[in-house]
Amino acid sequence: MVISDHEGTLVHCNEAAMKMMGPVLAHIQPADWAETYRVFRPDGVTPFPSSEFPLQRALRGETTEGVGMLARTHAVPEGVALSVSGRPIRGKDGELLGAVVVFGDVGERKRYEAERERRRQADAQRIVAEKERLRMARILQGLLDNLDVVVWAIDDKGTCTFHDGRGAESAGLQRGQLVGQNFFEIYSPHDLKRALTGTPVHVIDEGEGVIWEHWMIPVEEDKRITGLIGMSVNVSEPHKAKLELEAKLALIQRQQEVILNLETPIIQVWDHILTLPMVGVVDSRRAARVTDDLLAAVARTQSRFAILDLTGVEVVDTATAAHMLNILSAVRLLGAEGIITGIRPTVAQTMISLGLDLSRVRTLATLRDGLGFAIRQLGSKGARAG
After folding, report:
1. Report field, pTM of the whole predicted structure over 0.85
2. 310 burial class (0-12, 13-18, 19+ CB within 10 angstroms)?
3. Alpha-carbon dihedral sign for residues 316, 321, 323, 329
4. Most buried among 41, 72, 88, 290, by the most CB within 10 A?
5. In angstroms, rounded to a whole number, what is the distance separating the alpha carbons of residues 385 and 41?
6. Over the chain (386 residues), what is each successive 10-residue block's mean pLDDT?
7. Inter-helix orientation angle 284-301/236-263, to 10°
């Protein structure tokens, strides 16, 4: 508390004021207070105008409440935050006798409030973090309770520190049963030790009649591997389904090979005579397969005649008709004679309309005619050779 007379001369200050402001000099005029006591606005930078000092305003008859100021005095060079209130002192007749100013150090309060705010924010962050941990824990627990998985953790010595998950029942274990046991003594330590070198490991193995898929993730603290976090998933059903699918695909592949062979059935009906009955639609893909199979059969059996029977063919396109003639030309290059039998009227019209040259191709009405011709040719050549 500081009291001045009506001229602004300080007439009283209590001990608390002297502790905060230093010795209060009675001879200092109000206009010199700002310079003497180095008073600033609360930002600590802007000088506080002397004319706005609560004491000056009180001497002008004004009342002030809680004016914020910061004073850097010799007693407190780092500055003290003040809350200042001033009132005029009047006589019974209303005459201005002086002024009184009461100020308090609010720095401690501000520090307390700042610390309280810091703690409040820290508590709020802790609560948020705790809620997030609980949320993650509920998610993890939901997965462990409903999926056929096991989540586990071991330290760098192999001792299990966590073991939970419904999948434990698949291995004939209770949830948490392996906590405290050493995995190196229970399971093959090779993959565990490899993961403890810092390399994540993903393996599939079989144990207790169950197919397990394992993920092992190293845990690092202060640049040192302190253990592993692992997840093991029972993949017996998916693995079984995969094997069944692979078996079905293999069966389909075998069936396709049988169908492809039935599409181009090359039959050796007589010594040195091959027949190739074509049935259905002959497209370019099928014609290309016929060429490959027929040439291979001619070379293998040393056949002299190859009969291409088209009795079962209703329609051929341009590319297919040309391809058939190419087949016969290729057969001729191997020293055999190509014969076409059973051409239907529609196929004959297609070949004629395309302007294909059939003058060098022997065509007969039926497969029987073609076979008879080939046998006679072989017989006559055999007789001449005799």
Report:
1. no
2. buried
3. positive
4. 290
5. 133
6. 84 80 62 72 85 88 90 75 90 90 80 83 92 90 87 93 88 88 87 90 80 90 91 82 82 70 75 85 71 88 91 76 80 90 85 75 90 89 54
7. 70
